[in-house]
UniProtKB/TrEMBL annotation:
One GO biological process term: polyphosphate metabolic process
Domain Polyphosphate kinase-2-related: 5-226, 254-476
Database matches in InterPro entries: P-loop_NTPase, PolyP_AMP_Tfrase, PPK2-related
One annotated GO molecular function: polyphosphate:AMP phosphotransferase activity
Residue runs in coiled coils: none
Protein's name according to its UniProt entry: Polyphosphate:AMP phosphotransferase
Domain of life: Bacteria
Annotated Pfam families: PPK2
Organism: Candidatus Onthocola gallistercoris
Amino acid sequence: MRMGDEKKYKKNLETCQSQLARLSRELREKGIPVVILFEGMGTSGKGDRIQELIQPLDPRGFSVLTVKKPGKEERKYPWLRRYFMSIPPKGQIHIFNDSWYSQVVRRLAVKKPDDGFAKEKWKKINLFEQQLADDGTVILKFFLELSMDEQRHRLSFLKKNKDTAWLVSEKEKDQQRHFKRWKAGYDRMMKETDTPWAPWMVIDADQLSQAGIQVLTAVKDRLAEAVSKTNTGEELQLEKTENRLAHVDLSKTMEKDVYKKKYDEMKACMRSMQNRLYMEKIPLILVFEGWDASGKGGTIKRLTAPMDPRGYEVIPISAPAGDEKTHHYLWRFWKHMPKRGHVAVFDRSWYGRVLVERVEGFARPQEWMRAYDEINELEAMLQDEGAIILKFWLHIDKDEQERRFKERMENPEKQWKITDEDWRNREKWPDYEAAASDMFAKTSTKQIPWHVIPANSKYYARIKVMETILQSVEERLKG
């Protein structure tokens, strides 16, 4: 770079950085999360571009993350989990030096590329980024395009100096040896994942005098657009659905002695089931929803009692708090997804978005209406990776709920279970009933249906739930 060009570059850089500093403060005030990711060949200048980008930013407002090859423990979890856990909270900027794309491109650059693996991952990545964008996250994706000759020149320069030779990794050596394979992998990446909500921006990384300005200008323009945008929300209409709960036969019951006998028989079956799931490395996800006092906790206690506590986790879900409130609403659930061979039991779940958050107004209409598709996508992703997902709604009538509420109030050992909120929720029974009906209509799929359990009889409900679990797992193991 000539002296005059260098001065001009520095001046333009400082102008962009000054504007970025102001925009980052506005983003923080408005609570807008930002994802900026860089992909490209080794020595394409990702580190330099990131350094120029963060220089004007408040260190409290950004994080730089490098996505490395997943370790042994990480590979036991759903593929998307570690990436969802890395997303920024509201008002923060996360900058990725390599990202969720790196592992997929690496698989395409080998001698015999795994095309099936790539197709599956492109689909998941597009859905992942769309969910973030729909929730208000600004996504900028940069590909730093480097020619084969320029990479060879830069690698040679690094190798000659003993202080920089260590920077040349085996990955970069492989990229130079098999440049065409790697380039084909990156080209495929951009073709499959260039979307309206997260388009790729290609930067000519051979031209050092222009690359930095191009990146900073693109970031500046996109952030300026984000802070000036007013989100009014689109008008969405929900079709009226049938009240599925009106047809549930709540007269089904079971005597205590029959229940005890059946439960004792099922204990060994539950232990055996857990062992077989572990041996086959199949994760099991159990979701429990239902009315207050419908018996969710008691059912969960009985079904997990025979199981090895090292292989399951019960996750009680209440109102989001702390970091949970500043992240995408699914973030707090991804961290509890089970690893292969383990069991996760959710006492309430992500369905709160379309139940309590809808009824109480904690989510805007466009947010909870969008959640039906997002939840279906989440569950389909988990099932595609081998998980068994069973969803239970424990149903009781209003009279039975009142009886149980009063019983709790009269029993000192159970008074902690009843709150003023339970009574307030009871007053909104028709609203919750309508929300549940819409939930069944929108999220009870052929692959992952809802199991509505008559629960006026606690004994009947517990046995029915365990029978359903054992039958479903057996079908999968035989399948």
